[in-house]
Amino acid sequence: MKIVQSIERAFDILEEISKSPAGISDLSRSTGLPTSTVARLLYSLEKMDVIEREEGKSIYRIGPSVVTLASSVNPTQRLLTAAQPHLRGLVEMLGEAAGLAIPAGYDVHYIGEIDSPHPVQIRDWTGTSLPIHIVPSGIVFLAHWPDDAVEAFLRHPLDRFTAQTVISPTVIRQRVVEAKEKGHVWLFEEFSEGINSIAAPVFNHTGLLLGALHSHGPSYRFPSEEMEDVIAQRVMQTASAISEALGFVPNRDSK
Amino acid sequence: MKIVQSIERAFDILEEISKSPAGISDLSRSTGLPTSTVARLLYSLEKMDVIEREEGKSIYRIGPSVVTLASSVNPTQRLLTAAQPHLRGLVEMLGEAAGLAIPAGYDVHYIGEIDSPHPVQIRDWTGTSLPIHIVPSGIVFLAHWPDDAVEAFLRHPLDRFTAQTVISPTVIRQRVVEAKEKGHVWLFEEFSEGINSIAAPVFNHTGLLLGALHSHGPSYRFPSEEMEDVIAQRVMQTASAISEALGFVPNRDSK
DNA sequence: TTTGCACTTCCCATATCGTGGCAAGTATCA
DNA sequence: TGATACTTGCCACGATATGGGAAGTGCAAA
Questions:
Q1: What's the pLDDT score for residue A23?
Q2: CATH of the domain at B22
């Protein structure tokens, strides 16, 4: 098949513009196209909101709508986009950071987070991976694995990160069972001294486990005494809301 | 002028795909175009690396190259992109957060930051604005304003944020002079208790002040005793490196 | 396996639509 | 003020995008 000429040219122009904003004649030179043709293509791109022009001047640059397009590049982005408002709401409610993680082998990979408004806060783990057994999101993932996969995982030696880190297969098995029952997991200072965190599962439209929502804060203030259960409720509600935003339909029966 | 038909159609299709990946006939239905036309447009977009297809299947989705396009949306992004590696280097060297801010009227607007590796850290101010007189980046901006603009600013009432916040026009004038001499500004707990920070100017290729580079950390560890001057040197060096990455040519004479 | 349905790919005649030369209009600079 | 550089508008031409339809492919049910 043959590439549609005007589309090929339009994207050649876009590429030039993305390197640096330019006017019609600049582009005419760099692409080798007649100015009238470049003008027409630019006009079309502008009307489609792909590019915008410098106020007054006729210098064109990539427009913000491209960012929207780009946000859908992969499922992770999709998840993040869908979750964004819910994360905000949760952070506002709890006053602590909330974020998302996805499973990556025997690791938990952090894909996004909204930080707490507190000046003193936990660092943002976005982009990093942590072992599955030291973070609550990891336990949540284990709770959705087939039993034999969990057993295979538990046969591996597990690292200790703090004095509190649980590496006993027996205790981890218990936690997994508990996670299935309660729908969330709390972990206290097992990854890092001074940090507590909670997580709950997020599902996609087919009901498959997609990732986990977590919230964490400095242990001196999070969770405050009697709030432990209330926070858990909020986090699970938010996780469900995100799942539903992704098309997941909860069924009224079941635990 | 008239919009080029194939471009209009191509972006209609892209918009559909960005909502959710789809195949030829799905798109044919949602756009009302004949399948052969949709197929040809998709083929063109695929060849231009704008979309990619699900391995084997013929489900199309937005490709990664769009992310590249999107990264050039505006000058701020350009600054951020150029500064990225330098920010990383600085954070690695200092062990504290570093970021960029641009002037916005009588406010300093934070546009990006790389956080410190410490678990206990300062929150990320990206996206927020702070008054010009309480942050070192603000004083840096003042140092590059015409004198009468500075005087006009000082006639406005200035808010106090902490016990340490300086709101005296006289002291601020002194600081501006000092900023011009030294090329950087230190401020101690003037915006928030427990936070110290330093800033230095970043210039664009025409030598115009573009923004400021800053670094900040908890006051109990930043800056450590005798490191104050060394840190200042590093920050200024990094700011210069960013300016040069943007095409700024420093002249060896000057002050 | 066969049958049927739904989707994608290919082909080709048609005329629509993009094209580019040119000229008029406008901004920039000395 | 004149000269230069760039943008916008116009329009006849024909190259090129178009879309109907047929052939090919894949999947699932019978």
A1: 87
A2: 1.10.10.10
Q: Which residues are CB-contacts of B212 (< 8 A; sequence separation ≥ 6)?
A: B100, B101, B102, B108, B136, B137, B140, B141, B199, B200, B201, B202, B239
Output the distance from B61 CA to C17 C1' rounded to whole Å.
28
A91-147 pLDDT, tens digit per residue, is 989 989 999 998 877 888 888 888 887 877 777 787 678 899 999 999 999 998 878
pLDDT along chain B (255 residues), means of 10: 88 85 87 89 88 76 75 65 82 91 84 82 80 94 86 87 89 94 94 91 77 92 87 94 72 39
ipTM score for this prediction: 0.55
Q: CATH number of the domain at B124, please.
A: 3.30.450.40
The residue type at A146: P
Within this chain, do residues A201 and A240 fall inside the same structural domain, yes or no?
Answer: yes
Secondary structure (DSSP) of chain B:
----HHHHHHHHHHHHHHHS-B-HHHHHHHH---HHHHHHHHHHHHHTTSEEE-SSS--EEE-THHHHHHTTSSHHHHHHHHHHHHHHHHHHHHSSEEEEEEEETTEEEEEEEE--SSSEEEPP-TT-EEETTSSHHHHHHHTTS-HHHHHHHHHS-----STT----HHHHHHHHHHHHHHS-EEEESSSSTTEEEEEEEEE-TTS-EEEEEEEEEETTTSS-GGGHHHHHHHHHHHHHHHHHHTT----S---
Q: Are residues B128 and B238 in the same domain?
A: yes
Note the CA–C1' distance, B29 to D19, in angstroms: 15
Does one domain contain both A95 and A37? no
Is residue A122 assigned to a domain?
yes
% of chain A exceeding 90 in pLDDT: 29
Q: Which of A115, A119, A123 sits opposite B119 (nearest CB)?
A: A123
pLDDT for B186 equals 96
Write down which residue in A69, A90, A115 finishes a domain.
A69
Domain identity same for A179 and A226: yes
Residue A218: inside a domain, yes or no? yes
Number of domain units in chain B: 2
Same domain as B118, residue B230:
yes
| Cβ contact A63–B50 (<8 Å) | no
Residue B176 structural domain: 75-245
From A41, A69, A97, the end of a domain falls on: A69
Residues A180 and A139 both lie in one domain: yes
Q: Is the minimum distance from the CB of A41 to strand C below 7 Å?
A: yes
B46 CB neighbours strand C below 7 A: no
pLDDT at A16: 85
Whether the predicted pLDDT of A183 surpasses 70:
yes
